[in-house]
Amino acid sequence: ENRMDDEQLAVRAAIIDSDEQHRAMVPQLCGVAYAAARSAEHQNLADEVSVAARRTYLGVAEGVSAKLTPWPRFEVVDSLTQVVAGTNYFFKVRVSAADETDEHVQLRVFSSLFGDLPVLVALRRGAVAEGPLVYFEADAGADA
């Protein structure tokens, strides 16, 4: 069951409400709103899909049992949102250890209006992920 319990829904609602004033000040750009980097809501959403992102990054299929090493770091450094029948979140996440050269991945995460758990839709890595965070399609590919 991928439904959140009442306590999780209450916490999620509180986080969303706390961001409401900030969002009111965020300008719209072609349907994508620039949001503050590192907000608690965005970090929590990214954390919820971090295992799926690690599987995708390493090329490990969902049904395959594998011991995954955790990310050295998983810190949202930039984000965009797009309201659809739910919300598409675009995150630029720093995944390298503090003493290493910066490495980033970009995630596209969908959160439905019905309280379902967020879903990793796409992951970009490589040179494109090091660039600015922009809207990208679900089939953008690892390095596109």
From TrEMBL:
Coiled coil: none annotated. This is Cystatin domain-containing protein.
